[in-house]
Structures are given as C-alpha cells and as structure tokens.
Amino acid sequence: MVYCGPLSKACLPCRRRKLRCDLRRDACTQCTRAQLPCSGYRNTTALRFRDETNAVQRRVTAQKSHTTIPRSPPQSICSQARDIFYHNYVFGPTKPFDFLQRVYSQTSKDVHLSRSVDAVALAYLNSQRPSGRAEVEARRSYVSAIQCTRDALQTPHLAQQDSTLLAVLLLDLYEKITTREPVFQGAWAAHLDGALTLVKLRGDEQFSEPSTRRMLIRLSTNMLISCVASGRPVLNDLVNLRHTIAAHLPTPPDPKWQESDLVIEFARLRQAISNDVLADRNEATVALIELDSKFLKLGMQVPPAWQYTTIQVDTKSEHHYESYHHIHPAEHVCQMWNTLRATRILLNELIRSRCMDWQGRLNAGSRFRAIHERATGAIKQMAMDICASLPQYIDGPPMSFLQAFDQTGSPSVSSDLGNGTFPIGRPHPSYYLPCYRLIYPLYVAAQSSVVPLSLSKWVVGQLRFMADYHAIKNAMTVADLLELGQKTDVGHIYAMLGSYAFVC
C-alpha cells in the first residue's frame, strides 16, 4: 500500500477548473453557477491508500525481460499542424473552412492546394505555440504554395477549379496569421483581390454548388472585414458578389449575414463622414441614428436559435462585472452578438462626436443633448453586455467539450517541436480560441471614454487572467495598452489579434 497524502473532496469540475468547491448538498455552488453537472464528491478515505502490488510486479517482470518494444515514430510537425488546423477550421465549433473537406478530398493531387494547407496549418501552429522549426517550415511551404498557385493560374482548367480559389483563400489566411498590421499594399490585401478576380472569371455556375457557395460567403466576409480593419473602401465588386450570393440563400438569411450587410453600411458611412463627402453635421447625425436603429432592430428580431439566456447570480465571481452573465447556445452566436455590440459602440461614438462643436463642447439645444445622452447610454449598455459574455468562456471549455475531446481522441501536440516547446499543463490551443475571440470586443468596450473606469480596470484584469491561465500573449499586450491609456485604433488591434484568422 502507498500513502498518497491528503486529497481534495472537491467535485471533478471544480478540480479541473482549479476552483474552491463548497461541497454543498446535491450540487456545489460553482457548478450551479456555471450550469455544469456536478459529479459529486470523492471518498478521500478510500483514495488515500493505493494498492501498488500489481504495478510492482509489472516493473519486476519488465526488468527481467530482454525484449525491446519499439516505440511508435513521433508524429511529424506538419501532421500535428494539420490536425490542429482541421480541428479548429474544418471540424470545430465555428467551421469557417468546412468546405475544405470536400475540395481537398476530391482534389488531393492538386499540389498548390496541398502546399497552401501545409503553409497555413504550420503558421497557425506557430502562432499558438511558437516554434522555430514550425516557423521555418511554414515559410518554406508558403513560398512553394505561391509558386504552385501561380502555375495553376496559368493553366486554364486549373484556374477555374475550386481548389485554386481555395488555395488563394488559404494564402490570404496565412498572411492574416503572420502579418499583424492592416495595410493596403502587399499580400495582406492582394490575395483577396486576386480571389475576387477569380470569382468574376468563373461565371454564375459556381453559385449553384452549396459548398462552393460557402467558400464564396467566406471570401465576401473576409473581404468585408479586411476593408473595415484597414479603412479600405468597400468595393462595389464585393457588394455585387454578396447580392448574387444572397439570391441563392434562404429568405430571410441568418442574422450573421444581415449583420454583415449593416457593417457594410457602417463602413461606407464612416468613410463618407471621414472624407467630408457627408459634411453636413445634421445629415450625418440622422444617417448614423438610422443605422443604429437598424442594428437595434436586428438584435430584437433574431430567431430563437440565435438568442442568449441571461443568468442572474447571487454572488459575483472575479469574472463577473455585473451580477449576471450570458449563456450562448453556440460560439458563433456569441460572435454575432459581440460584433453587433462592438459596432454599435463605434457607431454611437460617432453620433456623440456629431453632437460636439469644433471645441469639443456639447452643442447647445435640447435635441443635441438628448441624442448625446441616448448614444452614451447605448455605449454603456453594449459594453456591459460584452462583459457579460465573458464568464461562459474565460476559464476554459465547458465540461461537454472536455468529454468530447476524451471520447473522440483530439489532435495532440508533441511536447517537442524542434526549437520550440509546447508548455506542458497548458490548455490545448483549441481550448482557448473562444476566449481569444473575446479580446477584441473587450478592447472596444474598455477603450471608450464613456464607460466607467471600473469597467476598464475590470477588462484589464480579465485580459491578464487570459494571458496567465491560457498563455495568450496578445491578451497581455492589449491589457498593457489599456492600462497605459494608449488610444490605439480598433482596426490595428483587430489586425494585431490576427484579424479573421482567429477573431471571426
């Protein structure tokens, strides 16, 4: 018998989440608050001593045996990268590249697509857990993918295949993962422009295939986000592409598609105001208020599958700003709502600025004062709602996610990645992506001059928790910017976080 020392009576969820369990009858408070099934409490007396007889016998037998059992060869770094990339982008909760499964399985001999998959997968692995070897292999694969894709574009039948369009989309994803500045020139925008040109050459037949249509939706979404983040004009070709896609979608389209249409309106309106195309203050204010009403209406009319539940709590945890939090039925629903909230914050900040004179003082008159107060209230409410989305994801995946990983055999990452090391004991990269995607809306909420200082400080604390618990380096960077009061353009923050490679 081996004495194992004192053991915790805490339930399994609390032990996994490293929380203090109050051992309450029926279910502990922590599990009740997080809406998790409480597994009950351990009999520590039975566990304190462990029978090691069989283990000792096995060790003695192994020492006497001269038979050497060969070890399985380690999984290659490229295979590891593909496993993790597929888990997050093809089979994961949000599935932004689910169409890759069909195209890649049917065209596995297309070298340009294979090299593009390798390049983006290795870049993604390196971004999650930096490795000198992964970085070198990613660059090598990227250069090879560029060369092979150029060759494919010069071959008429290959240029019009889905595999070539997908290869270009993956090369663009590589740029967003590795380049954290929103720029007009260079590959940051060039791949998307090239993909849009390919779509125009392919004709209308491409819209009939559902998986190809999802690829085109991804292209249109990525182009829109790229334009908004960089301040680049929203091209008419992009708007026309979305109109053609919309003709093949159910009526009405899902809330995320409708939200993207409103984001296009916001981007164009913001640019018109910035370039003095819409110079009249009253006209600009009316246009902004009307657009904000459209966002508000969208939020009020979402179907049940896109609605969240508000949970009131008796005692706030460190991850609660107010005494409530939101539970979303799926991660993409949370993303939709936080995009709406963040955009409304930026929109209402513009409305507030329209109410000020050239000296930064509130214009005289009850009309401007009322508009200013409504915009201020909207910003505060949106900021608090963003904070309320955090408890669901901040301290790790739900139990159902962990159980699914155990049952399905999730992709694993070797502890040895050449010159880099995967931190043992840290959550798998797949675990904290939902948490990572909260950084941008949290920044938008905290950077506003309208929100209370207590909210900004609370956000900084949550970001530092992400950096410590999930090893998210960018969370610490954003926390430092907020704490120092450095007003950084939200587009630059979005690009620094990897744009739609991670955030969307």
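The record above closes out task 2.4. Task 2.5 opens with a second protein, given below.
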Amino acid sequence: MADDEDWSSNANEALHISFVQAGQSEPVTLSTFHPRFTYPIFGDEECIFGYQGLAIKLRFTAHDLLPNLTVSYDKEFRPVDEVGPLDIEDALREWIPRITFQDAAKFDSHVQQDAKEWKPPGELLESYTSRGRKFEIFSGPLTNPAIQQLVDRIQILVSFFIEGGTPIPLDDQDWSLARWRVFFIYEKLSSLPSSRTSPYSLVGYSTTYRFLPHESRPIDPQARSRTHNFALPPIDPFSLDSLPARDRISQFLILPSHQSHSHGTHLYNTIVGLFLADSTTTEITVEDPNEAFDDLRDYCDYARLTANGTFSKIRFPMSSQQLDPKLFAKTRGTRVPTSKLLDLPLLSTLRHQNKIAPRQFARLVEMYLLVQFPLSVRQSGTMRITRKARSADEEDRKWYYWRLLLKQRIYKKNKDMLKQLDRVERVERCEDAVGVQAGDYERLLRKMAEKGSVEAGSNVTMETGGKGRRDKGKRKVLDDEEEELEGTPEPKRAR
C-alpha cells in the first residue's frame, strides 16, 4: 500500500468556500476563503484520505445563498480490503441541504437568473456606509419561511467557523422556532456585472434565542387556608413575544472576506439596540463567547455606557464620612464591608436599565473605575498599597479599594477551588489573577482609546468570525481575595 500521506489531504486546505453572483455570461466569484476548521465533519485530524490533488468547492449565491458542491481530484485511491477513500459527499450530507448536490450546471443556471428585484427577507433595521460602500441589516423570526430557508442553506458555516457551534434544528415545532430571531448583514452593491445581478451580497449573520425566566417564589404557609379567585386562561392565543424574557446572542459570524471593516460592531449594536427598545426584554446575554467576541462586546458595551451617561453616575468610593470603620481595620480576618464602597442599589438600577448581565456589568464598572486612576498609579501594581486603606494618599486608598472589589468578584467565582489551597498559595493565586485581569483591562482600554471610545463613546472596530481552535481562545483568569469579603452577588462566569 502506498504511503498514507500520499493519499491524505488537509480538509481545511482542500475545501474552498465561495460566494458568486450573476455575470454577463457566467457566474462571477465575489470572494473565496477556507474554513477555520473542519473537525466536526472530517474528524479531529481534519484529514481526508483517498485522494491526490483534492479540491472541494462549496459555492453559495451571494444573495439567496443557494449552495452547490463539486468535488474534483487528480487521483483516487484504489480500495484495498476494507480500506478505501472517504465518501466526501456522504460525510457532508447531514450538514447541508439536499439541493447542494444538484448538478453544477443547474446551479450556474440559477445564478444567472434575473434577481435584480430580490430583497433580503425580514425588516430593515439599519443602513450604514463603511469605506464608501453601503450595507443593510435585516431581521425577522425563524418562523418566516424565507428566513428559515436562508439559515438552512448557510448554517454549515457555523460548523466551519464557530467553535462548538451546532446547526439550529429547523424541523422543530413553530412555538420553539418562534424563540429564534435571525439578523443578516448584506452589502448593497452599486457596481454590478450584469443587469440581472442582485445588488445584495451576504456579509454576515447572527441568531438570538429568547428565554422565559423562571422565578421561584417563597411558599406562603398560610396560602392553603385562603380562598383565591382563579381565572381561566384566555380563549385567544397569546404570543411568547409578549412575555418578559432574556434574549441571548447565540451565533455570530462575519464572513472572513468582510472582517476588520466594523461590521461586527454594527451588527452587535443593532441587536442590542433592538432589545433595549423591547419592553419585554429584561436582559441581553451571550452564549459561550470566545475571546474575540468578548473584546467586541466589551468595546461596544463600554462605548454605549459612556455615551448614555451611565458611567458618569457612578462615584467611587463614596464620601469618606460614609465609609465603614471596618474598611480601615488592622486585624487580620476582619470582614471587610466592600458593599460600602459603591452605591449597590444605584448599580443595580443602572444594570437593569441597560439590560446587561451581572458579571458583564461588573467588569464594565471595574474598567471604568480603573481608567479614573492616573497612569502612574495603575502601573505601580501593589507597590502603592502597603498601607492599604490607611494610606495618607487618597489615590493609594482608592487603588487598594479597587483591587479589593476585583478580588472579591474573582474569589467568589473560584471559592470552591481556592478553599482547597493553603492560605499562602491561595493569596498568591488571587494576587496573580488580579494582576492578569488588570492587565487585560489595560489592553482593552488602550485599544478603545486608540479608537476614541473611552473619551467619546464612539463605536469600536472589532470583528469575530468564530471561536478559534478547540481551546476556544478564552482567557483563563482566576479571581481572588486574601481577606474575607462581603457585598455584590456572585458573578456567573469568570474571565
């Protein structure tokens, strides 16, 4: 048998993804790129056995996203016993619609059809211009047949670019599909190669899912002895959209050919803006974000809270006359009432007004407070807090308090793990984690300052096309505290 390597192809390099539009006499390619990974389909090694000179071409019409697959190769491995070449079409069959396997000539014929009047389905939410080119964002529920067809055709890209991403089961019941909302960015082209060509070309898309929160209430022991009026359910059906809910950004993809052009920022801000205006949305969350999307989210949220005046209402710390004497305690083990440093009821109100999840809001507040310190203080690390809250320098005291709040959040998230360490190691791990988190905040703030968002609250350019490799590209930050702390609620996830 010939060397396996002679017959093995790298799946990522062999697969070419293209978007095409109608030309004068034949389809014209707008962009071509490779997937970031293919292991969900071709296995962890991302190799395809049995071919030499393998080329897999997955083409999409740029407007209605009709897919087409063609496989070509120079040589095919001749089967030996039970060893034979991989059936590529069979491997892809469960990931793409059946129409993908139609003859290439039929696909080309569809591309060349008159599509100049075609428009993306859903409601037009925003139009904007970037680098002299026009773009539009449309949105609608997944129950819309036209939107469902587009998602069915394009969502294989989720497996190619979003780590751990899975296709949406489109055969679900309507009441379940109604919880999904889809957002599309299309470029509206001004220069077209043919009078039949659609001016619309896909740039990216995102999906959101609506959760109905469950609120547990304490049981009244005397309720059983009371008589209650009971109302029958209404005869007329009601929509889930009328109930209070948390909206979660689930999938978020900007095509590689359109990244680094601010489209991720526009799409994220449009999604958040829609839900902020929706009185039934109580909170906007993100499903398992990777590092790139974390940055995008931080940039946009920070800019928005700066621009809408949220940050300007926060004072830290509160007046020294209001500070609890225990904040200055010298005895080790004294519970430090960090809740006295910030107006927690005000923060809760601001968080709910902006519909931001608790942990994300806490991080944004930490970044805002950090930027209030002179650079000399921020660069000093722990050098300026040897006397902690008893320092004669007000900036040194505030710096100690800021680190104390950060330690508290980190410690609470990792409390179970930290309790297993001895005190000395626990303190070291906590201090290291605070330093890492503070350093990451500085990185974000520098990038935002370069874009002018820290002072002006403008949009920050940041795109994400997926979640990176299997480590998900996530920052690992442990949260800390040497002293016992009390105050804000435990965050949901540490970064």
